[in-house]
Amino acid sequence: MDPEKEAQFYSRLKEELNNTSTWPSSYLYKFIIPSDNAKIARIEEIFDNKGAVITTKESSNGKYTAVSIQLIMESADAVIGKYKEVGEIEGVISL
């Protein structure tokens, strides 16, 4: 993604999160990734130290895996920070 568009996207997301949430707040992340145990493990590592509830579901053909993570986040900036960390993993689609 173009760095300027990415900055605008995260700016809008931060504004929306601050308008709709009181921090700290429960937040649900959802990602779709190619079914790759190393990539799934990397996502789990990113959220592991926060007491997250992580669920995975493989697609019917086995090519993709949906990963959902529910946890308490301290701020909109913390939410965005995790999106950026996960975004560094190749092939991840954030929902």
Q: What does this molecule look like?
A:
Helices cover 44% and strands 29% of the residues. By secondary structure, it is of the alpha+beta class. The chain has a single domain (3-94), classed as Alpha-Beta Plaits (2-Layer Sandwich), CATH 3.30.70.260. The protein has a 4-stranded antiparallel sheet with strand order 2-3-1-4. Strand 2 and strand 3 form a beta hairpin. 12% of the residues are buried.
Lay out the secondary structure.
Layout (H helix, E strand, L loop, with lengths): L2 H18 L4 E10 L2 H12 L4 E6 L5 E10 L2 H12 L5 E2 L1
Antiparallel strand pairs: 1-3, 1-4, 2-3
Q: Tell me what portion of residues adopts beta-strand conformation.
A: 25-35%
Count of extended strands = 4
The main sheet comes to: 4 strands, antiparallel
Task: Give the number of domains.
Answer: 1
What is the distance, rounded to the nearest whole angstrom, between the alpha carbons of the first and last residues?
A: 15 Å
The CATH superfamily turns out to be ACT domain
- CATH fold field value: Alpha-Beta Plaits
Protein name: DUF493 domain-containing protein
Organism: Sinomicrobium oceani
InterPro entries: UPF0250_YbeD-like, YbeD-like_sf
Pfam families: DUF493 (PF04359)
